[in-house]
Design brief:
mainly beta, six-stranded antiparallel beta barrel, single chain, Thrombin, subunit H
Length: about 325
């Protein structure tokens, strides 16, 4: 067998020749993804298959848990040299189902919205074939994967938080089957919750890139970081152990995946003086955006609410 590899762009073309003795029997050309690039696109790491001519795989099988490292930075490393990343008991689909935050500094990258045509059900779930109205149909093609989500406007905004954002609940992953003018017919690849007309869609590659970013090992910061609990999944005001919450600090303030915040609440002391903060739990960051973080509550003595403090101490 003779193998020749040609790199180009995000992938490589591999030519494989099979021999019997000195006679070449047949040749096969495959296109594979080259590791080490953190870019995710529909044509490579987010498509239905990374090998030409193979059976389509589910999106989760294409996103491997990679032991990636960010470039070493001596100025940002902790005294112990410890490097951390997102908790490893999160599968890709669990990460995707956890949702995300949309704000001025974290745009959603919306590509269109779910529309209801004649004969369509009011709510979509497998094995329905929903329809998506694309904002720019020229940028989409058959086979593309999209993330469907429902946006709860300004659900993470509160007085005193110095933060404004909207919770995006991930509903499904769909694949484009047909595009007629600006309307795409899609099939549901993975469903997390039913979705309906008006729900928005974005490139699934954005979420693959978020996952890879969370899996990259980073240095723990050397300084304290103070922020607040902005809330969590919509319609939930009280959070307990194993729930997810949104913190009002992201990588711009030095937050990295894998760090643990102490969560506390202010307790009034009446005439004795200013309120004091009492620690009532902790939360571990599993995704860090520019201006926010997603964290899972790892311990709680009582319910956690919007406005509670969160402090990281090295």
């Amino acid at each position: 067998m003779y193998v020749k590899t040609t790199r180009g762009g995000l992938g490589a073309i591999v030519l494989i020749l099979f021999f019997q003795g000195s006679q070449a029997l047949f040749a096969k050309t495959v296109e594979v993804e080259v590791g080490g690039d953190d870019t995710a696109t529909n044509s490579v790491s987010t498509g239905p298959s990374t090998l030409t001519g193979t059976q389509a795989a589910s999106p989760e099988t294409l996103v491997r848990n990679q032991d990636m490292d960010s470039p070493a930075d001596g100025s940002g490393s902790s005294p112990s040299g410890k490097r951390v990343r997102a908790p490893q008991d999160f599968s890709f689909y669990s990460f995707l189902a956890s949702g995300f935050v949309v704000s001025d500094s974290e745009p959603s990258g919306v590509m269109g919205k779910v529309v209801t045509l004649a004969g369509d059900p009011l709510n979509y779930s497998q094995p329905s074939e929903p329809h998506i109205q694309l904002e720019k149909p020229s940028r989409s093609k058959v086979g593309d994967l999209l993330t469907v989500y429902h946006l709860f406007d300004d659900s993470l905004s509160g007085s005193g938080l110095n933060f404004q954002g909207s919770w995006a609940e991930t509903r499904a992953v769909v694949q484009v089957e047909e595009i007629v003018k600006n309307v795409a017919t899609v099939k549901i690849i993975q469903s997390f919750a039913p979705f309906a007309g008006g729900d928005q869609v974005r490139d699934y590659g954005i979420d693959v890139k978020r996952w890879k970013r969370a899996q990259t090992k980073k240095n723990l910061p050397l300084t304290e970081i103070h922020c607040y609990v902005a809330g969590g999944p919509a319609m939930n005001m009280n959070f307990k152990q194993s729930d997810n919450v949104v913190l009002t600090a992201g990588d711009r303030k030095g937050v990295v995946e894998g760090m643990v915040f102490a969560v506390g609440k202010k307790v009034e002391r009446g005439s004795e003086g200013d309120p004091v903060v009492t620690q009532i739990g902790s939360a571990e960051v599993f995704y860090c955006g520019n201006s926010y973080s997603l964290a899972r509550v790892t311990r709680s003595q009582e319910v956690i609410q919007q406005g509670f403090t969160a402090v990281y101490r090295p």
